[in-house]
Amino acid sequence: MEIKGYVEKGLELAPETSGPDQKAEVVFQKKSEDAARNAAKGRAAETKEQESYFVADIGKGRESCIEAVTYDPDSGNDSSFSWKTGEAVSDELDIQYYLRWNESGNTEYAARFQELAERFHAALEKETVTEEEGEVQARQVMEELELPEMRVSSLEKILWFPKGSIPEEGSPGNSEDFLWQADLSKAAAGYRYTFTRKTNGLFLIRGGMALNGTGEVYAPPFPVETVQITVTENGVQAFSWEGISEESAIVAENTELLEFEEIQEWLFKQITYWYTQKKVPPEENMRFSYPVIGAEIGYTYIPAYEKPDCVWMVPAWNFQVMEQVNGRDMQYLEWTINALDGGVVGEILN
Question: Is the pLDDT of residue 139 over 90?
Answer without folding.
Answer: yes
